[in-house]
Structures
1.
Amino acid sequence: MPQVLPIEKFLQQSEAQPIFDVRSPAEFQHGRIPGAKNLPLFSDEERAEVGTLYKRKGREQAMLRGLEIVGPKMMGFVEFAKEHCSNRQVFLHCWRGGQRSESMAWLLEFSGLHCFVLEGGYKSFRRFVREGFTQEKQIVILGGMTGTGKTEILLELAKLGEKIIDLEDLAIHKGSAFGGIERPQDITQEHFENRLGLAWRKIDPQKLLWLEDESQRIGNVHVPMEIWQQMKAGPVLAVEMPADLRQKRLLLEYAELNPDELKKATQRIERRLGGLATKQTLEALDAGDMEQACAILLPYYDKFYTRGLVRREDDQVLQVGTNTIDAAENAVLVRDFWYAKK
């Protein structure tokens, strides 16, 4: 008999095991438990057909059509599950823990596997994620103007044993208008929340959590309001780096990027950058003069960053100066500065 597990036990016991999501490919693509594999009972078209039949002719007719569709696929389901599971254990779910997961669990149990089914299905996981966002953390925001290398410093802090969440990595976007270059943001809001939700719950509320200073919107997704409010209320440790060093860092980061993509990103901010500055930046990019392009764009981003800091209370912001672009050195500087102030 399949064993039904509530969400927390399901996630704990499946941590080193694959999770099989038996919903349709479109449902799976929209949002899923991070790391899950799609083992769809029905294709998108088949799911729509069975659903329509259920509404028009009732449950019995829909069930018969479902059996007709699934029958030829049964061996494939078993082979896929056995190929990807370990210890003959299978963790699976559908949308609400209903007939799709029950049917798949019956088949896989019959084939000699032991199944654990998520109570309440993916819907219960989504509720678990949303409820987790209300957990309060001891947040410190790592700030600094464009070019200070905040993300790299954040990753170095993790190497030093500090707890971090890299929001840009979870969002598959670097945050600015240039943040999606060579990193197409193929993620939905729901799946971003799922990734963030699991990362958020793993952080001990008694431990310090470092987050990078971000706008609420990161590319096409946004930080959930419950977390965003904590970020706005948290202290900011802003790295102060001379403009010439920041420009040097940006040249190292963007010099190898596709010039056409850089021009498209520049055109996307034309309304805020201004016509003349946009024209000059595009001309510099056409000439291959990245140094000049950075010199034009840097004051634009500095202005917006400064505006964001002004909105915070004076005692929220601490400044720490640096004269190096080395992220590892700056991580030690930031960490030591913070703990010395406490």
2.
Amino acid sequence: MAQVVAVLDARPAAAWQSVGGIPLVTRLVRSLELAGVERIRIVCASAQPLREPGARQAGTQVEVLEAPTEGPLPLRAGEGAEEVIAIDATLVVDRRLLKRLVDGKAPLVIQPTPAGTGEPGRVRLARLAAAAVAALGSGDAVPGAERLDPGTLPTWAAEVRGPKPILLMDGSLPGAPRSVQDALLLATEKHVMDAPARWVDPHAENAIVRRLVDTPVTPNHVTFFSLGIGLAAAAFLYLGWWALALPVMFLVGWLDGVDGKLARLRLQYSRIGEAESLFDFTYEQRRGCAADRAAAALAGSMWAGFVACSVWAAITAGVHLARLFLASRGVGVPEPVR
């Protein structure tokens, strides 16, 4: 495989504005890391103060270069590489698009891209020969380039267990921070959920995420807080304190989705987040037993509560069996990503 380096044109001030809790440049750096790119060069305007690019993996090599605000990227931005993934850093780029560039061969140009403040058709996202890095931002066609239309890519995403639109947005346009953040937040929604988690919980979860996204609160903070109040909810149920247990149970359910959404929005993953299901198991087993007692109390007897829980379990199993049957016939199964 050709030696490839990612070059981000971060000379526009808009490239450093925060969208979804992190600067656009940082979002690209973390997305490139997750796509398997280890060498990244950020080209900044000479007058800009240098900032922390926000890489999270120890093996990532990030170099910051200075260049005049106007004009083509300096050729030295691609020095030491055979090919360059060149990106206008005011863009929000879907990781699946970046992966196509990582796996592709130069010259490969992603078009159409948002026009932004420049002319339509200019090169803003491409894999180029290192000597052609100055073509980024050019309105001229790149000779011999393969053109990849983002709209032709499969939308299935394992991360959310369902379809997820291919995001390619311009963060430099007026009103972009809010609209881009909303699109990114919507893209964090998982699809394999029960009815309340799919149709009710997202409204509360997203409201909480919007409050937290620009604060120092991390997904791990939310995970540990959720664990604490989850154990409290189980204790309240066990003691029969229904008035206290019910609102706390709702809050636990919402926070269970908030930490994952916050991590996906900021690209702030951790080993603790990967092990979250173990924390959930700790209190959900106790909470589940206590919830059965609550169902029995509400139904008027242990037998009636057992019947209510059994009917709900049977309905749930029936729905999943039907979905499994349809999937075995190819209904709703995504096409393989090539």
3.
Amino acid sequence: MHRPLNQPLARLTIALLIAVAWTLALVTPTLAQGTFTWYERATAKFTILYAPGSAADAEEYATWVDGVYDSLATTFNFRTTPPLTLRLYPTSEAYYQVNPAARAVPGVVAHADFRHRELVVILEQTRQQTEEEQHNNVRHELTHIIAADLSANRLDTGFQEGVAQYLEQPTSTLDQQIADLRQADTQSLLLPWSTFDSRDQIYAAPELSYPQTRAVVAFLVERGGFAALRTFLTMSARSSGYRSALERTYGASSTVLETEWLAWLPSYLDGGYRRSALTAYDLSFARSLVEQGNYAAAAEELRQALMWLRKQAATQPPAVITEAEALLLRSETGMRAEQVAESARQALERTDYAQAKTLLADTRQRYAELGDTRQAAVLTLYEERAARGLQATDQLAEATTLAQSFRYPAARSAADAAAREFAALGDSVRRANALNLRATLDQRQQFFGLVLCLVGTAGALFSLIGRVFVRPSEAW
């Protein structure tokens, strides 16, 4: 209920108890609030009450409070009945005049009164805040009123605070809350969910209960989407308690959900807390993986992102889902290009040059579709290797054809060239084939040379013998 300044959360203990007294106190007429007259500044959704000297503050709030209302109305798909009252106390002292017990709790910034549908902000305290923190004061307290409306004011304290915090925009204080929650987890000090029904227990240790209840709501949103969380709120209005509302909404008992939450918590503490269904999913990491050509990692990241995005479709911009789907398609195309390139490399290793050439052409086309030229140099080397292998294969085939037509010198030259190229390519099998062909050609040449030599010798001998044994012609 009460919202503190950036003070130790322990100060909330008394502050949140004061909320009860404040609720009872807000039964007097508007002009009785403090010792001065209240002025009004109306907006479409709020009646802003401010003290003399705070007109500029009222005008500043008037520029954005309706935007907070509209944002929450869109998120919850529910418009709590306007106008609401936003009361701006100029100082803590003015606030203490109406709430004397609050003097014991310095640092109170804001709170909400469900019954009178009033939000309270202490300007003296908010001037120390950033603009986003000032917006969060209104966002947090207005969420309390919306959650009370949706649940017929039956939502317990723990879930009330968890939901109100989840609807805030992240600020620098979130990291400190996570550090406190991490320490509590390490020391086994986490509160059981059964304590969420107890105001005293929630507000007795706000430095733990606040970040823990926020984490529980974040888990429920991750598990079923924000739409399911809203169903849980409305179901609370028709249930005997949070356990029944949880089971009717999520199809699991609170005991099972609490066990699942404990298993999920480490991922939340390790950075998951930065993700919210209420802000557009950040695709920059996946986008950078795609741009780097790390397609497998990008695809894994995007598949997980799309599971989450589709679950949160009620609150995520459709354009984000569309971009994620396009990035995933691009990643999968890149992965297929890499797989085909790897198949081409393996084809080259087993010296299947024709298959490698076909696969490389396919790879080129896929990378061209992606506009990715990072692998161009490697593909060129592969293509050159495949071309050389095919040329050498053709030379070996030509050598075989020439040998069959007894053109041994030309065949030997072709076999020689093929053997040299296969040796350069590391293709030992085809090199051996080329060398074997050359050796065969050499043997044939030697054989035919010997045959020709023998034939020549035989011819000479026959010629000589003929001269010896043939009688000379008679002279006439």
4.
Amino acid sequence: MATKSDFLTTVSMGRVKPTDGMAVTADVWERAHSYHLQRARLHALASHGSGIVAGLEVQPSDPADSSVYVLPGYAIDYLGREIIVAQPVSFDLGTAVGNLKLVLSYGEGEPKPEPVNGRVEEGAPYIVQEAFTIEVINMDQPSTGLVLATINRTAKSEPVIGTDDGQQPGSNSLDCRMVRRIGAAKVRRVRVAVVAIGPDAPQDAGDGMVRLAKICNGHWPGISVTVDSHKNLDTTLTGYSMIYLIGHGDFGLSSEAMTAIYNALQAGVTVVLDRSVRVADYEAAGKTFDEMLQALGVELAQVPTSHELFSIPNLFAEVARGYDGTQAATARVGDGRVIAFDADYDAIWRGLSRQQAVPREHLRSAHEWGENLIHYVAGRKAEWEL
């Protein structure tokens, strides 16, 4: 298989410098254009690598037989050459059996003069037509092409089928797990507004959410979390993905604050309610939250363990423990729009706990539960960016 180092040895370091009166022969023209072509391929290979940029999914025929369809797409091979498949292509595996791989390779036709109205004019330029080839070969057979799919075909009479289980495809099923995809990945941008409310709200409220955002950004490249702390409920919050409202002690909500929450919910914002259990009158915050939800017409129910909060991306059997640490916290959800905790996760996310020495598994569990919360919010509302 060709490597980047192999390709570097073929790159010309000499660039044609035009001068008045120079003879532009075919060799000079070829050298001038070859320089730019090589640099473009070097950039593609070194900056993006080889693989499928877009499309090129492989699907079985319907009804299933020995053929598959390669959908249109764009790829870069191991020498930085671009492969464009503009139309769906049907490919027949024929009698091939065993552990197989479907391979896409770059190709070029012989230089030919391009006819105009069916006639080749004298002095017409020669055109090199870029093309591609698709072949099926044994899994252990070396190839410089790009793998589109693999399949364990047990007999030549067996039809090629798709699979509903992408992780464990069975015999005669298309397996696309070896496909290497490159290019600009889309990122979900999750914006979080932290609102600490109540007479006992500390200055560092929201620092735990900031810490959680750093962890998510480090673990999950497909998600970008930004946090705005010290927000007020009398401002426009509809542009956020989540409002993390932390109640501290006994407080009330103004009509402006209620309107802000209502508008946010209508805009698809997830409102997460949490109570600080570090303050003496922590139950008062829960009472205010209940009154707020009643006014908004939102009913909460216990989050079932089948909810994605318990499984995406981290698996949980119970709600993660919060600041108290002695038992699992409670979690309730209302219409998918509101999630209510009584855990003070903002505290545990930055290492604070009622326990003198916080167990490592306690911290990790809380952070992973927070990652699940961020993923859930991202699924409801996030800004896509390249």
